[in-house]
């Protein structure tokens, strides 16, 4: 009779992003997002990429609105991921597991947040959402990030939570503007990445 394998011995359980590749990965991803957004605007919107920034509040109002929204989203998510059923399934998600096992500096947190917030919002909210709508865009956004899993209740709750955040970014883009959505995304990512770097997520009952 063989012993049951330890879940921590599963392949990829201790997945780590090479430190030297973090900045390159961020810059490369942002360039790809920019290129895809430009192609979508050129072939489908028949207008310039900068037109995505033309509606919404003034820039200063977009920045503070986005900062408040991003901070509020991070606060809600932080409370939920430290409690069951979500606390028990966080390590099942590729991105969460990889980031928790990668030592992040403050610079890493800032640059990852800025590149992700600007690049992803430009593509998904600025270019794709006007074509497909908030709901479909959010499904694609959450799916690409690998947040849809359905094995346990915690997976459902986490996926629904990420879908709700994506919807919130979609409405923020519609009513406040693209800079507001970018700011909210960047602030949210910065707070969550700082918690990862600080070890707070690991101390909430998770094993990196």
Question: In words, what does this structure look like?
Answer:
- With 208 residues, the chain is an all-alpha fold.
- Helices cover 66% and strands 0% of the residues.
- The chain is built from six helices and no strands.
- The protein is globular.
- The two termini are 29 Å apart.
- The N terminus and C terminus are likely disordered.
Approximate helicity band: 55-70%
Would you tell me the overall average pLDDT? Answer: 89
Terminal CA distance: 29 Å
The fraction of residues assigned to DSSP E strands is: under 5%
Summarize the structure.
This protein is an all-alpha fold. It contains 6 helices and no strands.
Main features:
single chain; 208 residues; mainly alpha; 6 helices; globular; disordered N terminus
Produce the secondary structure layout:
Layout: H1 22-45, H2 59-81, H3 94-100, H4 106-144, H5 153-175, H6 178-198
Helix pairs in contact: 1-4, 2-5, 2-6, 4-5, 4-6, 5-6
């Amino acid at each position: 009779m063989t012993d049951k394998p330890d879940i921590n011995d599963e392949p990829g359980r201790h997945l780590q992003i090479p430190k030297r590749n973090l900045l390159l990965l961020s810059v490369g991803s942002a360039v790809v997002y920019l290129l895809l957004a430009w192609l979508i605007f050129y072939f489908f919107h028949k207008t310039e990429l900068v037109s995505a920034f033309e509606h919404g509040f003034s820039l200063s109002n977009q920045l503070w609105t986005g900062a408040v929204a991003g901070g509020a989203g991070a606060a809600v998510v932080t409370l939920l991921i430290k409690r069951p059923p979500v606390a028990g399934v966080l390590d099942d998600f590729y991105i969460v597991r990889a980031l928790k096992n990668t030592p992040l500096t403050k610079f890493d947190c800032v640059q990852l947040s800025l590149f992700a917030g600007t690049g992803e919002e430009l593509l998904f909210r600025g270019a794709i959402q006007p074509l497909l709508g908030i709901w479909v865009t959010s499904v694609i956004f959450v799916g690409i990030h690998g947040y849809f899993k359905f094995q346990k209740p915690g997976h459902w709750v986490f996926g629904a939570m990420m879908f709700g955040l994506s919807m919130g970014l979609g409405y923020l883009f519609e009513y406040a503007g693209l800079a507001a959505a970018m700011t909210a995304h960047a602030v949210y990512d910065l707070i969550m990445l700082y918690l990862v770097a600080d070890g707070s997520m690991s101390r909430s009952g998770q094993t990196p």
